[in-house]
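Subject line: Sequence and fold of a protein, written as structure tokens
Body of memo: The sequence and its backbone structure tokens, given next.
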Amino acid sequence: MAGAGEDWLSDGLDVAGADCGLWVPGVDYMAGWREARESADRLNRALLGAGFELSEVRAVASTDESGRGVVRLAGWPDAAERLAGLLAAVSDGDGGAA
């Protein structure tokens, strides 16, 4: 999944985090990662459709220590502010209550 080019792979957004590195033997991390990857790809397509470049904000698939899929949003502060504004504009103004 890429925006205007492949430069997003080395754009400085550290998406690894402090919790990556140690894997527990016997935990099926791949199943959780695959599920997270599908969701991250869908979110990245939505971000591209909303005019964002993946070099400024993107969804990243990962897993937690138990192998459950996790999708993290990584981005520069200005892109996060733009995304927050977009989400606020489409919400019904109740502060996020469902």
